[in-house]
Amino acid sequence: MDGRWEEVHPRRRNLIGALIATTVGATFMCCVALYNGTIAIGLANLGITTDATVVQVDRFQRGSKITVEFTAQSGDTVSAECTSCSSDLDEGDRVRIRYNPDNLAPGVEDAENHGARRVALFALAAVAVLLSTAGLVGWRLNRDRPSV
């Protein structure tokens, strides 16, 4: 750098850092909302609802991983991770799931829970908060700008 950054008042540097951080955070949350929104729309439009059996439950300190097995529309037996199933489920329990027959990669979700839609809505709310914060920080930067 050419030394101009050191000439900037420390409060102004902090505000610039906060503006960068909130903008990066908002961009990340936009990506999260887009990804989960795409999954939610795919499940809403193409999703098939069926019953599944819990075949594996891995409990961790912060959550769990639920694996279910079900018979797909094609007649094949499929095993997939349930991304929004309750952590209270045990092996052998039955659960109603929704899956996209064209793309099982993101997993399946509890038919009553709509996990991807909830995550997308939360991410959009976070984007709104972060962009509001960025606007406030930008306003403060503009207000504190030294007069020429």
TrEMBL record:
Transmembrane segments: 15-35, 119-139
Keyword terms of this UniProt record: Membrane, Transmembrane, Transmembrane helix
Protein name, per record: DUF3592 domain-containing protein
Lineage: Bacteria, Bacillati, Actinomycetota, Actinomycetes, Micromonosporales
